[in-house]
Amino acid sequence: MLAIRIAACTQTGARDHNEDDLRHGVADGAAYAVLSDGAGGHDNGAIASDLVVRLVAMRLQAALEITAAALHDAVHEAHELLVMQQQGAESERHRMHATLVALWIDAETGAALWSHVGDSRLYILRAGRISHTTRDDSVVRQMLDAGLIDAAAAEHHPLKHHLVCAMGVSGEFVAHTIQRPFTLADGDALLLCSDGWWEPLLATEIERTLAEAPDPEAWLEAMRQLIDQAGNPRQDNHSAIAVWIGSAPAGA
Q1: Which of 90, 95, 148, 206 could form a disulfide linkage to 143, CB 3.0–4.6 angstroms apart?
Q2: 37-54 residue pLDDT tens
C-alpha cells in the first residue's frame, strides 16, 4: 500500500474573487485530487469550477473500480451538466466555462490515472525532476506544436490564455484521459495547478522548492512565496494540489 500525502493551496491573487476550486481525499485504498479554474462574467467562473470539481470528486468517491473509463465518464458528465446549466439561462450565464485536471490513484497497486481539459496542468516529478507535464488546450500550444513560434515567443504571446477546449463549451469537446495507468514509485511527487500558479514559476523553481521541502505543505508554501515575490499587479487566482508518494520525494 502506497503512503500518500496530499496538501492544497488556493489564493485570490490580485483579483476581486477566486474562481478556482479544488478537492482531494484519501480513503478505502484510493486517492483523488481535482482542480478547476472557472471563467465567465459575474460569478459564473466560480459557479462553473465548483460544479465541475464537486461532480467529478463525487463520482470518483462513489466508483466501485478505478478505471480510465470511469474517470473519462465523470469528466464528460461534468461537462454535459455545465452545458445544460447554460441552456435557456439569462445571457450573462452563457459563458460558464472551466478548466479541469483530475488525478486518481489506486494506493494498493500504485496505478495512477488522470484527465485534463484546458490549461490547468499536472506535473509528475520523479527523482526530483519534472518527467511529465500535461499539454495545454491552448492556441499557443497548438502554434508551438506546429512550429509556428518558439518557446520564447510563446511566453508573451497575446493569445497565450486563449483556450481551444474547456469544460462547458458548445460543440466538439475532448477530455484528455490516459487509457493505460501510470505506475507510481516511492518518492514520486505530483502537482496539479491552475495557470495562475504555473505561469509565474520556472520548471527549475518547481524542482528546487521540492528538493528543499520537508512535506507537501512546505512545498506549496515555498512556491506560493515565489509567486508573491514576482509582484505581478494583475496576478490571477492561483491554486495547487501537491501529492507525495512515500515518505519524501526522491532527490529531495
Answers
A1: 148
A2: 998 766 789 999 999 999
